[in-house]
Amino acid sequence: MSLPKQNNVRKILGRVEKVGIPEWGLYDIKAKIDTGAYTSSLHCHHIVPLDDNRVRFNLLDPSHKNYNEKLFEVPAFNIKKVKSSNGFTEERIIIKTTIVIAGQSLLTQLSLTDRSRMRYPLLIGRKLLKNRFLVDVSKTY
């Protein structure tokens, strides 16, 4: 029996992890790790699609401790229909950015949505998790 190659070893994530989005100056954002969700999503408000295939938004909302009123404008990657946890389907703007999770920097897609009623401002779905991480739901961080 041979030992697995080092690059096949996957890091273990808990059901909640701290994530950074360095290009936006956000660090230690609590993220729910959700193997039931396909797409990752980020809590934003004032999401405005622009004519030049860009999108403008504020990250988080005024009630969140990391909110700083900074307005972001980034290229919109796609518009996609997403079924939310309450079962409703809505069109969401998808953007690409690099996140840092468990010490790894990963280019990922995030749908922009209002997650103010959710416990965590960031949801990490299985599209990002697949072939990279294992999830132990009995652990956090």
Task: Explain the overall architecture.
- By secondary structure, the protein is an all-beta fold.
- It has one domain: Beta Barrel (Cathepsin D, subunit A, domain 1), CATH 2.40.70.10.
- The protein has 1 helix and 11 strands, in the order ββββββββββαβ.
- The protein has one helix spanning 126-129, and strands spanning 11-14, 16-21, 26-33, 40-49, 54-59, 71-75, 78-83, 89-101, 104-113, 122-124, 133-136.
- It has a 6-stranded mixed β-barrel with strand order 2-3-10-4-9-8. A two-stranded parallel sheet has the order 1-11.
- β4 (40-49) and β5 form a beta hairpin.
- The radius of gyration is 16 Å and the shape is globular.
- The N and C termini lie far apart (33 Å).
- Mean pLDDT is 89; it is low at 1-5.
Query: Rounded to an integer, what's the Rg over CA atoms?
Result: 16 Å
SS content category: mainly beta
CATH architecture: Beta Barrel
CA distance, first residue to last residue: 33 Å
DSSP strand content = over 45%
Q: Could you tell me the CATH topology label.
A: Cathepsin D, subunit A, domain 1
**What is the CATH homology-level superfamily?**
Acid Proteases
Q: Strand arrangement, largest sheet?
A: 2-3-10-4-9-8
**How many structurally independent domains?**
1
Number of strand segments = 11
Number of helices, counting only DSSP H or I runs of 4 residues or more: 1
Query: What composes the largest sheet?
Result: 6 strands, mixed, barrel
Give the SSE string. EEEEEEEEEEHE
CATH class: Mainly Beta
